[in-house]
Amino acid sequence: MRASLYSLFVPRLEPEERAFRRQVARTALRGSFVILAIWLVSETVIFLSNQIREGHALAYDAIAFSLLLLSLVLAGRWLRRDRLIELGYLLALAFFAYPALNIFFAPGDLYLVNSAFLLSVLVAGAIVGPAAGYLFAAGSILANLAGWLYARGAAPPGYFPFDPATGGIFILVQGLVAIGSAAILHTLMSHIRQTIGRLHRQAEQMTDLAHTDPLTSLANRRFFMDQLEREFARARRHHRPLSLIYLDLDGFKAINDRFGHLFGDDVLRGVSLSMQSILRAADLLARIGGDEFAVLLPETVQPGAVNVATKLRKALAAYVHQFGAALPSLTFCAGVAQLRESDTTIDDILGRADEAQYMAKTTGKDHTRTQTELPEPSRARPG
C-alpha cells in the first residue's frame, strides 16, 4: 500500500514522457519568471505613484516575491539536473503558498488572489503527475474554506462580502474549477502516455521488421551482419572464441519445382523452426537469402561449431522424416570458420566460411567443410 501511494505521488517517468515533461517544466519556469517580472513592475508603479500599501502588506509582498524568486532559481537548477519530480512539487508549493499566506496577511483580497491556487494544480498535474494535481486541488479547496472562515471575521469593512451564501458559492465554484482542472490534466496526460506507448510499440515493430526475415521470422542478413560486427569486436577485445557456419540447402529447388513455391515457403519455415530449436539462446540463426542460412556462435571453437552443424543436420532430417517418401531428399552443405588472431574485419571470417561452404558443395550433398581444410593462402570464391 505504501509503495503504491509512493508511486502515485512520485511516479517513475519513461524516457519519452520525461522528455515531454521536461519541456513542460521549461515552459512553466519561463512563464513563472514572466509573471514574477510583471508583479515586480506593478508593485514598483504602485510604490512610485505614492499609492503605498500598509506596511505589513508591503513587507509580505517583499517576502513573497523573494521566496518565489528563490524557488524559481532553485527549480532552474533542478531542471538542469533533470530532477523533474522535485521541480514540479517546488513550483506547485510556491504557487500554493502565495495565496495561502496572502489570505492571512490581507484577508480582504481572498477573492482576488485565490486564482493562484489553480496554477499550483496545473503545475503539479503537468510536471509531476495526475495524483499530484488532485492533491493540490484538494489542498486549494481546504485553503479556500479556511481562508473564507478567517476573512469573514478579519477582513476590514468595505471589502468583498463574506456572507455564507457568497462564501458557499465561492468555495463550490473554486473547488469545481480545481478538481475539473486536475481531471482534464489527468485525461490529457493519460492520452499522452498512451500515445507515447503506442509510438514506442510501433517503433519496436518497425525495428523488428527491419531486422527480421518476413518468411521465416529469423534474423535477416542486415541484422546478422550487425550482430557479427558486435561479436567480432567483443571476441577480439577479450580474446574469446567465435565461430560461424554458412549452410546452403541441397534439393530445395526440386521441392519448389514439384510442389510449388507456397509449399516451398512452408518447408523453409519448418526447416527454420527445427534448426532454431537446437541452438542456444546466445546463438543466432539467420536467413541470408533464398535457401541459404548462417549461424553465429559466440564462445564456440571450431570443433564445437562442427558439432552444432551435426545437430542442425539431425534436426533437418527429423523434420523431413515426417513427410515420408513424398518429400524429396533435403540436406545441406555447411562451411565452418573460426575467428583468427590475424582477422582484422568480419570479411576475413565471412570469406573463410563462404569458401568452406563452396568446397562442401563441390564435394557433393550433405557435407561439412572447415577453414582448416582450405588451401593456404585461401583463395576467394569465384563469383
* Poorly predicted spans: 378-383
**What is the β-strand count?**
5
Largest sheet: 5 strands, mixed
Mean pLDDT across the residues is: 85
If strands are numbered along the chain, what order do they take across the biggest sheet? 2-3-1-4-5
Give the N-to-C terminal Cα separation: 68 Å
Helical amount among residues, as a percent range? 55-70%
Number of domains: 2
H/E topology pattern: HHHHHHHHHEHHEEHEHE
User: Counting H and I runs of at least 4 residues, what is the number of helices?
Assistant: 13
SS-derived structural category: alpha+beta
3D shape: elongated
Radius of gyration: 36 Å
Fraction in beta strands? 5-15%
Structural commentary:
This protein has 383 residues and is an alpha+beta fold. It has two domains: 2-205, no CATH class; 221-373, Reverse transcriptase/Diguanylate cyclase domain (Alpha-Beta Plaits). 68% of the residues lie in helices and 9% in strands. Strands 2-3-1-4-5 form a five-stranded mixed beta sheet, sandwiched between helices. Helix 10 packs antiparallel against helix 11 (261-276). The longest helix has 48 residues, at 164-211. The chain is elongated and about 110 Å long. It starts with a helix and ends in a 13-residue tail after the last strand.
